[in-house]
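Good morning C.,

I know you're traveling, so I'll keep this short. The sequence:
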Amino acid sequence: MTKADKLLVQDIHNILDNGYKDVNPRPRYEDGIPAYTISVNHVVRKYDLSKGEFPICTLRRQAWKTGIREIFTIYQHPTNVLSEMRELGVTWWDPWDIGDGTIGQRYGATVKRYDLIHNLIEDIKKDPYGRRKVVSLWQETDLHETKGLAPCAFLTMWNVRGEYLDMSMIQRSGDMLTASGAGGINEIQYAALLMMIAKVTGYEPGVFTHFVANEQIYDRHMDNAQEMLRRAEVMADDTQHPFLVLNKEKGCRFEDITIDDFEMQDYNPMKPQLTFELGI
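The tokens, ready to paste straight into the viewer:
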């Protein structure tokens, strides 16, 4: 198992043993039934990419390329237009169409409006040891401007440490087994973003820390949670070290990085794939 697998098992047990059920949940399943969850608050996970600790789960296959493509739609070619997301290979936002073919003034639209990513890159280059390198997708003006899902992973903070660039990511809410859990899509894509920004600014990717304010398992995901625990028992003595490689020269342009520049090495997830019904 990977470090992420071990953390995921620990966190599943924590929710099953100590979690609380929500009341009057906003999300609904496709059949209209309320999507209840069991949650815990304040989950923290830490990985040192410089030591080979890339956060990817092997207890089920992770669509890591699509996750990185989504990061492109937020930070590299920032957009909130669903057709443009689909052109970049991201279709999982379609259920959140607010009725005009967009997800509202959210995510990529916010990054584009305030030029957040280029400001970050320039700040790292000009003032590497400054302590104000914060990228926030939580802009009150934007949130009140249109309908749309409020950003889940909404804040990153960046720090230079010698030859390394470290980053922490703050997430207000997370669906553990489909996206936010250890080694899930959110950790994969933000670790990849750290690698991208480090490459562009001339540093090595260092520590990635992920904080989830409220992390949950949906009631219709409980069988999959138990299946992942069973898989972990089978894999207990199987140590894996998959790692993502970014094949690009230091100092390259952020916009020039493509999905083909990424290579996932030694990744052997368990089969068959698990399916999850989403609460929308």
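Safe travels,
E.
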